[in-house]
Design brief:
Elements (H helix, E strand, L loop, with lengths): L2 H11 L5 H7 L10 H10 L2 H7 L5 H16 L3 H10 L5 H17 L1 H11 L4 H11 L8 H19 L9 H20 L1 H12 L4 H11 L2 H21 L2
Helix pairs in contact: 1-3, 3-5, 4-5, 5-6, 5-7, 7-8, 7-9, 9-11, 10-11, 10-12, 11-12, 11-13, 11-14, 12-14, 13-14
């Protein structure tokens, strides 16, 4: 038994009217870490009506649970869930936005083709939508098939190109900062899953004259998974970055 399965059993035994109180009591908040095992359990077994009602909750944890639950509905073919998730991707609360990324991963667990179809719709979206997409697809368990890993690299490549094309005023906005921060680790996941393609793209971006793009490359080079994937290639990217002004 896992914590998630234990929570599933508890939820299924509770009257539906008591779920919200239980979620709040066991959320782990306020605190350094929200209860993600309970989030997963809720997403596994919650009634679709409750999921949709909690989407609008002012409680950040409940709204996060709802976001992840929408991933289950989306994987089951409910396209309205995709529309709602895209709205939630721009929520002001970071846990809700993280819930959207987790929802996309649920879709990928069920149907990678469906995830890539959604990616084509989101990849040119606003920065927070792009950030949710990047975090959603850059999950190691989803990138074990070479074709999927390559698509993750291509997705990040397109999003990074949009960063390079962002004007100076837009770069002052918090949503740009959040996207940049997300790309600061997502590239390492995708490149480690598809080293030949991933390092080639990183080397190209390392030569960019854009300081934020170079920052993204530098942050990813700090991730140990890149050196483990191909140490000489990581060193080449670092050399190009140093030459371009780091």
């Amino acid at each position: 038994m896992t914590k998630t399965s234990d929570y599933r059993a508890v939820l299924e035994a509770l009257p539906s009217a008591q779920w919200e109180a239980y979620l709040r009591a066991e959320s782990g908040l306020p605190g350094p870490r929200g209860n993600l095992e309970l989030v997963a359990a809720f997403a596994d077994v919650a009634d679709p009506g409750l999921i949709r009602r909690l989407v609008d909750s002012p409680d950040e944890y409940l709204a996060m649970c709802a976001a992840v639950g929408l991933g289950r509905l989306l994987a089951a073919g409910d396209q309205r869930a995709a529309e709602t998730l895209r709205v939630l991707a721009e929520d002001g609360r970071w846990r809700v936005r993280e819930g959207v990324a987790m929802a996309l991963q649920r879709l990928g667990d069920a149907d990678m083709r469906a995830l890539w179809a959604l990616a084509r719709e989101w990849v040119d979206g606003k920065p927070l939508v792009q950030r949710a997409l990047a975090a959603g697809v850059c999950e190691p368990r989803l990138l074990r098939v070479p074709e999927d890993a390559a698509k993750a690299v291509e997705t990040l490549d397109r999003i990074t190109a949009s960063v390079e094309g962002t004007g100076p005023e837009s770069r002052k906005l918090d949503q740009f900062r959040v996207l940049r921060q997300g790309l600061g680790y997502c590239w390492s996941v995708a490149a480690a899953a598809s080293p030949a393609l991933g390092f080639a793209r990183l080397e190209r971006w390392a030569a960019s004259q854009d300081k934020d793009v170079r920052w993204i490359v530098r942050e990813n080079l700090r991730k140990a998974r890149l050196s483990r994937a191909d140490a000489p290639a990581a060193e080449r990217v670092a050399a190009v970055l140093d030459h371009s002004g780091g």
